[in-house]
Specification:
269 residues, 10 helices, globular, mainly alpha
Length: 269
Amino acid sequence: MGLEHSTSRWVAPVSFAVNFAAQQYGMLSSPNMKDVHDAHLSFWSPQPYFIAGFFFPQQIFQVAWLYRLYKLDGSKSAANAQEVQTMVDYVPYYVVGNLCIATWMIFWNSSALKTSNIFVLINSFSQLYYIFRRLDPMNTASTSSVLTHIVAKTFAGIGVLDLVHNGSVAYFDHQQPSMPIKVLTGLGFGALASVSDWIFGGCLVYDLVGLAVGQRIYTSTGWSNLLGIYAVTTAVIVSARNWFRPPYVKRDPGLQTVDAAEDGSEIVV
């Protein structure tokens, strides 16, 4: 799954524009995306403004990433070629993500929740696959690597929230959390936290806080408090993991191989 740099330069921004236009449609149409959200609540429904609060800064990082993708010239040096390759490798997953979210918006605003969930599944699992199976450790000396990690991991991070939210309202509309759901939530976020770096781990904590705030309104204080405990626990796991096993490296972008962090510890995404 790969594209040439010349193709990536236009297909990535086009997919961004399509998704951005779909988000405007979702906010300005009637019913809008929040109207649908408020009509379909479940045990994994977040406070909707947490999603909006995530959306704006992530767009800024995407624009910076797209600008660098367009401006870089890989023919100038080996270092530039490596910088380009770092970004180009993510482009297919970035395009899939944007197109899935844009399509999701159409079905979401039509209250076709089970259909919209298909596109959430494709996006979320695509982004998770990329950050855990394809993405090299972040090289803090490489702007391309840093930006790609931020964009990919925030995409995956909000994808986790989309996954639980859309799935719950599609199949468990207006239901309270059962004990298996409570256990699954804690185990799932804990497992992801144990293999997460600061960026993706921070997104997981943000997701849980958004769920906790939303559930205090929509279901019960007890479930909200438990989600808050999960958020704190997730933060502790992420901090411990990254403190004892630093996830990032620093090297000349022209160098090709890095297997471990500078202190010899294992690399995690």
